[in-house]
Amino acid sequence: MNHNIYIYILVMAGITYLIRLLPLTLIRREIKSTFIKSFLYYVPYVTLSVMTFPAILSATANVWSAAAGFVVALILAYNRKSLIQVSLISCAVVFVVELFTGI
Fold first, then answer.
1. Structural contact between residues 60 and 94, judged by C-beta atoms closer than 8 angstroms
2. I want to staple 86 with a disulfide (CB 3.0 to 4.6 A). Which of 11, 59, 64, 76 is the partner?
3. From residue 44, how far is each of 25, 48, 50, 64 by CA, in Å?
4. What is the pLDDT at residue 103?
5. pLDDT category, 16, cuts 50, 70, 90?
6. Could you give the CA distance from residue 13 to residue 21 in angstroms, rounded to a whole number?
7. Backbone CA torsion sign across 79, 81, 87, 89
8. Is 0.70 topped by the overall pTM?
9. Rg of the chain's alpha carbons, rounded to an integer?
């Protein structure tokens, strides 16, 4: 079976273009619904979370160390610690958990 990769790339480019073009052409006036505004406000955050979470769990040798680092990062971020503190302490927790689990 002979596949032409250029057709696949063209179809993907067309679909991506349509996804970005259709809201601009179909929605011409200001959105007044607070529900839709709040929904659209959180879409980028949810998308980033959905793409990042599986990578967090598969980034280490052990799922438990990744989960421990993730929980610590959530707690520190919730307590408004700086990004460097969250990342350094989370990495240290992952290191210590992997050290004690022997993997």
1. yes
2. 76
3. 21, 6, 10, 28
4. 62
5. very high
6. 12
7. negative
8. no
9. 21
Tokens standing for residue 84: 């460097």
- Phi first, then psi, for residue 58 (nearest 5°) are -105, 10
Can you tell me which residue has the tokens 């052409």?
25
Query: Cα–Cα distance between 64 and 94 in angstroms, integer?
Result: 9
| Measured distance CA(96)–CA(103) in Å, rounded | 11
Q: How many residues does the chain have?
A: 103
In order of 19, 44, 86, 99, the CA distances from 103 in angstroms are 44, 35, 23, 7
> CA–CA separation, 24 vs 72, rounded Å?
41
